[in-house]
Design goal:
Blueprint (H helix, E strand, L loop, with lengths): L2 H10 L2 E6 L5 E4 L5 E2 L11 H5 L4 E6 L12 E4 H8 L14
Antiparallel strand pairs: 1-2, 1-4, 2-3, 4-5
Length: 100
């Protein structure tokens, strides 16, 4: 899983994806696909892509409630669960069509 994968997922599903970095800071990938570390006030001395490799848990939040009064509650996901969301979906239905 790469940072670009998280960015695409956040845009497609209108999510904010949060995760804790090993140095204690939090990274947020917003619904526009922009990754930010809000606590940083200068250029980081780490590579976010490399730090992502060690992350085991993510928090997914709905960015906009779509006109509903209450937004969906945030969901915690393990790395393997999130990777399964990112995996390409295979279409089995209709794959065995034969033309006359």
């Amino acid at each position: 899983m790469k940072l670009a994968d998280l960015r695409k997922l956040s845009v497609r599903q209108n999510l904010r994806i949060r995760f804790q970095l090993p140095n204690g800071l939090e990274c947020v990938v917003n619904e526009h696909g922009v990754a930010r570390v809000p606590a940083l006030s200068r250029a980081p001395d780490f590579n976010l892509e490399q730090e992502l490799v060690s992350i085991g848990e993510f928090l997914l939040e709905s960015a906009a409630p779509d006109g509903r009064k209450t937004p969906d509650p945030p969901r915690r996901m393990r790395r393997d669960e999130l990777e399964s969301l990112l995996a390409p979906q295979t279409v089995a239905a209709g794959a065995d069509h034969e033309d006359e």
